[in-house]
Amino acid sequence: QLRAQNQVLKKGVVDEQANSASLKEQVKMKDQSLRKLQQEMDSLTFRNQQLAKRVELLQDELALSEARGKKNKKSAESSSQLSQEQKSVFNEDLQKKIEENERLHILFFEADEQHKRLEAELRTRLEVLETDAAQHQAVVDSLTRKYTDTIEKLQNDKAKLEIKSQTLEREAKDCRLRTEECQRQLKNLQSALGSRLEESLCIINEKVPFNDTRSNQYNALNVPLHNRRYQLKLRDLAGQALAFVQELVTALLNFHTYTEQKVQIFPIDSATDTISPLNQKFSQYLHENASYVRPLEEGMLHLFESITEDTVTVLETAVKLKAFSENLASYLCFLRKILPYQLKSLEEECESSLCTAALRARNMELHRDMKRLTAVFEKLHTYVSLLALPSTKPEGLLRTNYNFVFTNIATSLHGFHDILKDISKHYSQKAALEQDLPTATQKLITTNDCILSSVVALTNGVGKIASFFSNNLDHFTTSLSYGPKAGTEFISPLSAECMLQYKKKAVAYMKSLKKPCADSVPYEEALANRRVLLSSTESREGLAQQVQQSLEKIAKLEQEKEHWMLEAQLAKIKLEKENQKLKNSLSGHLTETIQERSVLPNVAEQKKEMTEKSLREPIKSTSLAPDVESREDLIKNHYMARIAELTSHLQLADSKSVHFHAECRALAKRLSLAEKSKESLTEELKLASQNISRLQASKDELMTTKRSYEDQLSMMSDHLCSMNETLTKQREEIDTLKMTSKGNSKKNKNR
User: Fold this and answer.
1) Domain residues of the chain, as ranges?
2) Among 246, 476, 652, 739, whose CB has the most other CB atoms within 10 angstroms?
3) How far is CA 439 from its chain centroid?
4) What DSSP assignment string belongs to 404-437?
5) Among 478, 480, 447, 316, which Cα is nearest to 388's?
6) pLDDT in tens, 530-556
7) C-beta neighbour count of 286 within 10 angstroms
8) Straight-line distance from the first to the last Cα atom of the chain, in angstroms, rounded to the nearest whole number
């Protein structure tokens, strides 16, 4: 394909070059015709100039003849006749020349314009053709380069593949020989293992009196393998589910409570007028919501407490799930009881005079959403009651249907989340429309906001539950359906309860076998504690000295703090008196009042207030106050801040120096102890090296005999494993090479 495109491009370039050459020839021809026309124009202008001169001469002669005609009338008459005839002849000749000159001028102008136009068109076309030719040439050059590179790469790849195929053929031959040897060894091993299997079966038949795994009824009483990771994961998931259910319960309580408040104030406020009997009954039922919603949280809490690390948690043993299902059924009965009243309340609100068309549409949308909400709760209750069946009636739900029930619960939760999204959207629109009503009160607006916030919280909680359940769906289906070894399921809840009792007995027996060890400290830990104890005695004395010094410093600083606080309070009182005097003396001239600072009630907080004001607040001064006082205040505040900063730095430096001194003393003590322990350890090391050299000789003798037996066994097993691995690898490489060689051959044929 690329070669065909290359030939087409070459033909196009050749055609464009021929067109450009023909256009150049046409341009040359037009230049020649233009030069001819210019020469004709020059000759015509020269002829016109000659005719103009001749006309001037004739006019001069006419003037002379008229002057002579006055002198001689007779001769004038004859000459006038001749001059008139000549004039007529000259005028006709002149008129013809003028017309011919005009016609030539027009022809020349038209030819010049046509030539310019044609020249511009030809130049633009020539430029376009030159650019196209350059682009085509660049494309052709790049394609030729690309083709040469690909051809070289393909040739190199072909050579490499040929070499690799030859080497692989050699290796394949070697592998065939090895496989034959491995097959022989495998036959020998199979015969040996078969004989050993027969011996072991005979022993089992003779020694094992009863195999309880053959019967499902007996196997259900066996304790399954304890999967602690699954139990911890299930407890973690149950804790997360409990938190989500608690959020859901609080959101439902808020929603029902604020709905009751809304019924009491809209469309008729119960404080000013009596509401309808329907709304009274509806609010009475809504007031009982806590007795139906709270048991959901309690049932989930009991289910979470029943899942521990030591138990085996499956649906047959999850007895508390039945209680949660009953609590959910009671809440569903509550929803069914309030649904007709809720729908009638919305219809009554639509019939009121305050309800607009848009508000009526929103109410009808909420009317449909409430029906969908009750239907979703019915669906969830159905599936949860199915999950509770294995703990009471195992024949009601087979283990093969667990996955189906869990997936339906996940889809129902996602549908529940979508319905709550619609309710949140429709109720927000309804609240905005009710806020625009002329009779809308602040109580109605706040109640609508509370209901909307509870619906949003309910939506977020259900969304979390749906995502949590769908993310952990695989874990639920696998961990809640395992049972005894070689068994498919528990036969009944009674067998599951017996299995749990056997598990408790087995755990108690295993604990009784473990004898408590005597309370003693390991040798390494005792040595480490001794070193720490010796090093800490010195550091304890240093710390006691540091504490004593710091207490003395604190007492001095407290005394200085009280002294300077009193000084600052006195200075403030003096400042207030001076300001009062200045205010009284300049009361007629001052235009702005001096803002005074209030005296703080607590002396402890006064110093902090002074430092904060000196650092953060600008200095307040009146228009008549001198610059000297403001400058002094600035300097004072700056130095106060600087003193506070330097004192903090000094305290940090003192604490660091004391800490470093204590660390140095402790390190010196540890160093001396380490030197002593080093000397003792060198002596022990010498004795240990002598013992090691003695034991090494005996160890070498034992190891040589042991290795000789182990090597003979390991060589056979390693050799078999390596041969199987090499065979599989070689077969895979041969298959891949065949596929690559076929693909390369197809590509080469296509090219």
Assistant:
1) 233-480
2) 476
3) 47
4) HHHHHHHHHHHHHHHHHHHHHHHHHHHHHHHHTS
5) 316
6) 766 665 555 566 667 777 777 888 878
7) 22
8) 8
